[in-house]
Amino acid sequence: MKLALFISVFIIATCGLVYELIAGTLASYLLGDTVLQFSTVIGAYLFAMGVGSYLSRYVGKGLVARFVQIEALVGLVGGSSAAFLSIAFAEAAGFRLVLYGLVFVIGTLVGLEIPLIIQILKDRVALKDLVAQVLALDYIGALAASVLFPLVLMPRLGLLRTSFLIGLANALVALWALRIFREELPRRSWLRAQCLASAALLALGFAASSRIGAWADSNLYADDVILTRSTPYQKIAVTRSKHDVRLFLNGHLQFSSLDEHRYHESLVHPGLAAVRSPREVLILGGGDGLAAREVLKHPGVERVVLVDLDAEVTRLFARNEALSALNEGSLLSPKLTVVNADAFTWLDRNPGFFDFAVVDFPDPSNYSVGKLFTTAFYGLLKKRLRPGGMIAVQATSPLFARRSFWCIEATVNASGLKAVPYHVYVPSFGEWGFILGTTGPYALPRALPAGLKYLSTEILPGLFVFPKDMERVPSEPNRLNTQNLVQLYDSEWEKINF
Question: Is the distance from CB of 424 to CB of 394 less than 8 angstroms?
């Protein structure tokens, strides 16, 4: 009996932390700012666990029956939490209230579990050994959850299936406890019915996860959702209408196939065409292969290295026919090597020199991305440039996030490169900005590759002219130890309501 209960402690500890990780991951997917969301979710969850632990003092009679009911209930509520939050985000205006309310309920139930087990076992095991063994297993279960969630559960099952599966584990613990304590629960048919009902609902949820996710996504996006993936880093969604394919990461539009050529031609060619005889090009981010497509239009380029954190993005845009058609098979080019790694770490550890670098990261809406817009990062990148080389940086909108744009320009300058700002109008996004970072003087290219849809030598000069409402404003560089850009970016985009 003791061994069975100790195994139960390990399982419920693992489940409890997974619920916390699910809530934090979903909050960061849907609300952005990973550090803030995980910090507040963890804080609320631990507080709720404290409340649950305190409330356990009022459970005096029927300890085993109450433990069984709590296991069935935490399994049902926690197991369905990912589905419930996904639907709530699409349907409810007060999503944060729903999120933290659910976190509090789950945390309170989880907080009741360990104190009840200790009370159940206190007459069977010496108190010193009991506390030591239960707490040790609780911490080991937390370690197991922290390893299994990002490395096994998320990549193979996704958030919804993981949530239902973990809830089912709690429900099975409840049924197991019924069997262990069958002699102490003569009237256990009602408890068994509750446990079986919880397990059945969770099993049905697991089986219907794809449909639940598709329904939630259909309410979140205007067009038909043709593909979704949840990775350890982000939620990927691809939508399609009659003439348009769109990529969303964590709910934020990354491109529309109707006008992405304006963005990617402007990102790549004003810089690359101005470099003398470029042979080797580095692309940081850009896992969709669209920037690589533009780079490969320069026949002199012999080698391209693309570094993107999320292997699922590069895999999809290399192997999915509809998506690889957009990048014209660039990710399968013999000239191109894909590296799935953190760009900051990769730059620091991998020697090599390039004639041109494309920096195509998402906007700096959280600190994980914000570190890739710092003087430290651009300084590392500068060391990888050959004489006469330059970089091109995606730098958000100089109209909607004016101070953020000029902060990135100041950051490039502070890294030792000469910043050359420019902008282009992309209908899906509005005015969008870029920064060239050069190791020497910049001159407009006299020629561009053939086959461009938008860019020409005639319109190039206009890209470098800024109207009054986008003119330079004084800005401090974004440094790794402060990351003022993230807060600046959030404050500016919060004011925009499209």
Answer: no
CA distance 80 to 165: 10
> Do residues 351 and 421 share a domain?
yes
Q: What's the rounded Cα separation, in Å, for the pair 368 and 6?
A: 38
Catalytic residues: 360
Q: How many domains does the chain have?
A: 3
- In terms of domains, do 341 and 384 share one? yes
Residue 297 lies in a domain: yes
Residue 61 structure tokens: 């009679």
Query: Do 267 and 237 share a domain, yes or no?
Result: no
Does some domain include residue 351? yes
Distance CA 483, CA 478 (A): 5
**Which CATH number covers residue 148?**
1.20.1250.20
Q: Which of 254, 269, 303 is the last residue of a domain?
A: 254
One digit per residue, the tens of pLDDT, for the chain of length 498 reads 667 777 888 999 999 999 999 998 888 777 766 777 888 999 999 999 999 999 998 887 788 899 999 999 999 999 999 998 888 876 655 788 889 999 999 999 999 998 988 888 777 777 777 788 888 988 899 999 999 998 889 888 888 999 999 999 999 999 988 888 887 777 788 899 999 999 999 999 999 998 888 787 777 777 888 888 888 788 888 999 888 999 998 878 899 999 999 999 999 999 999 999 999 999 999 999 999 999 999 999 999 999 999 999 999 999 999 899 999 999 999 999 999 999 999 998 887 899 999 999 999 988 888 999 999 999 999 999 999 999 999 999 999 999 999 999 999 999 999 999 999 999 999 999 999 999 989 999 999 999 999 999 999 999 999 999 999 999 999 999 888 998 899 888 877 654
Residue 459 tokens, joined? 């319109």
Q: What is the domain extent for residue 241?
A: 221-254
Let me know if residue 498 belongs to a domain: no
303 and 433 belong to one structural domain = yes
| 168, 248: one domain | no
Tell me: do 445 and 384 sit in the same domain.
yes
Amino acid at position 34, single letter: T
